Task: inverse folding
């Protein structure tokens, strides 16, 4: 501090050509100004520290808000894509079932004619067998 006062006294003498002593009112004013500047600088630093803490808090809240909004958006997109996949799978399953039903119906339609023909032949065979049994019974009765 003493070096600063000495430097100030030399500067005043060099610039203005006036010799100023340590007990001069100008030096008292300089000391008061230096003291006030130190107090003001400390108060400014404290205000800046509080402001920095508030900004950090705001940045943290914004980060949390952004993260929660991103999670909500991601969950909504995931739910929408899941619903779309389910709908697509159901539509595909219904289409596959319909196609399979058509194929089975077509195959059954192709088999219906031969099955009817086989049934008709089976009935005719039963009638012929019945007639053969009846003829055998008549032949047995006529021999007795």
Result:
């Amino acid at each position: 501090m003493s070096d600063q006062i000495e430097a100030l006294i030399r500067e005043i003498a060099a610039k203005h050509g006036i010799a100023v002593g340590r007990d001069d009112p100008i030096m008292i004013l300089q000391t008061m100004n230096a003291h006030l500047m130190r107090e003001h600088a400390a108060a400014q630093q404290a205000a800046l520290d509080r402001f920095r803490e508030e900004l950090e808090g705001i940045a943290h809240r914004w980060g949390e808000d952004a993260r929660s909004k991103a999670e909500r958006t991601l969950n909504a997109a995931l739910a929408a894509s899941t619903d779309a996949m389910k709908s697509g799978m159901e539509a595909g399953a219904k289409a596959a079932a319909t196609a399979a039903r058509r194929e089975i119906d077509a195959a059954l339609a192709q088999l219906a004619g031969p099955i009817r023909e086989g049934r008709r032949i089976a009935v005719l065979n039963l009638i012929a067998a019945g007639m053969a049994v009846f003829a055998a019974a008549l032949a047995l009765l006529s021999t007795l």
Observations:
- The CA atoms of residues 42 and 141 lie 140 Å apart.
- The mean pLDDT is 89.
